[in-house]
Amino acid sequence: MNWLLEPLTYQFMQRGLFASVIVGVLCAVMGTYVVLRGMAFLGDAMAHAILPGVAIAYLLNGNLLVGAGIAAVIVALSIGLFSREGVVKEDTAIGILFAAALSLGVALISSMQTYAVDLSHILFGDVLGVSAADLWVIAILSLIILLTVALFFKQFLVISFDPVLAATLRLPAELLRNLMLVLLALTIVVSLQTVGVSLAAAMLVTQAATAYLLTRRLLPMMLVSALIGALSSVIGLYLSYYLNIVSGSTIVLTATAFFMLAFLWKRMKSV
Amino acid sequence: MSHTPHRLEIENISIGYGDKIIMQDLSFQVPHGARVAVVGPNGAGKSTLFKALVGILPLKSGKIFIHGETLGSHKDCVAYVPQREDVDWRFPVTVSDVVMMGRFGQIGWWSNPSKKDKQIVRKSIEQMGITDLADLSIGQLSGGQQQRAFLARAMAQEPHILLMDEPFTGVDATTQEVTFGLLDHLREKQVTTIISTHDLNLAATRFDLVLLINHRLIAFGTPQQVFTKENLASAFGNSLLVMENGMMLVDECCPPDEEHHHIEVK
Predict the structure, then answer these.
(1) pTM beyond 0.90, yes or no
(2) Interface predicted TM-score (ipTM)
(3) CATH 3.30.70.360 fits A2-262, yes or no
């Protein structure tokens, strides 16, 4: 039992654990939409696209989360704008914005003196550096996002499953789609601190894909995904503590192990 | 004509994607409760027309009126049964989930389904003969069963106008009969049904009105008025073969059904 409690005697470990469980659950829930709507590439792009926002916030001595949030929302809405008119395909629009934002972010960060340390924190997260104030921001933003998902559950279900039905029901599909993109952007911002931009994309896909293999309705899929997300975060953080590995990696690798197990189970069952 | 209360009026609509016009200057009126077959060669714009009627494809010009008001000013008036290839069958929803979605127009944005909603869903599923399948994932159903699930959803919407895209293509006999049973039931309820089909025999025998199109209106009226040699020739062009005894053959290599459709013309 001691090995379980020992890490928690450190306050930064307690905060880290809270933060990564919240982020694990949040990413897992939003991830169900990412997986079902085929938005994995979009999530990846968005995660990298917030880099310039973080860099600018850093340069201005502002709050990094606010900078990331603004950048993410701008990118989310411009992807919607570019692809809506059908001028370029959506994945092309994403690819262009993704590359441009990432390059801009790296350019900005590399112009700073101490970039080496900070860049790795942004890319791979620094869960043990979560302050009490950060934890509050993470908790409140996550609560807002999850409540919004609960509130629009029916509407999001219809626009994801059957856009034509959404039209006949006269749902404001465009508005709902943009709302979902904004929620996705905010989710990535929240996960910035714990797993970093590089691994946030994995968090958005792996748990939800695992849950997809195990369930056959949307709500159970979300709940199972959230459970796997929380477990991956806890196990991953302990692995990180004892093996002295970057926590973002251990969390994502734990989630991947869950996916492999579910995949094997599914294969065995169908044989 | 002006004294009949038309429930669906299409006025000079043109539809298309980008610069490409698929349907040019189409006008027709469907009275309350009629059963209309939409026929025409492959790529004539049948699905495009349906997308415009549903409101997902904006009109380039012209107007659509339902009950005398423009499209979009009514809620829950139009239900649409999509072609099977347009649905993501891997999505994690059960048959009853799908049918319940038909009620979402009536259920408030932030409320749960009421007893009445659940009852309507149960009844619609029962009417389509898929009660045993209600808790299965839609991906587990056969093609015909999937179509019946979507018909049940359309019923649950309690529409005034029902649009169906090729419901008779590649389905089993049971589903075809269940579909016609539903159509008879809807006629009693004065629901207007508009159905695209490749099957000219069905169009000629089991529908009140036929809309023959090929990127524009060729003919609209009763099957007898529409299915003339001239109209069919101008709709189907080279794929029409006229036999000596007046029998006409329409030869279309239209996947998934590649049979020949023939129809007798007096």
Answers:
(1) no
(2) 0.84
(3) no
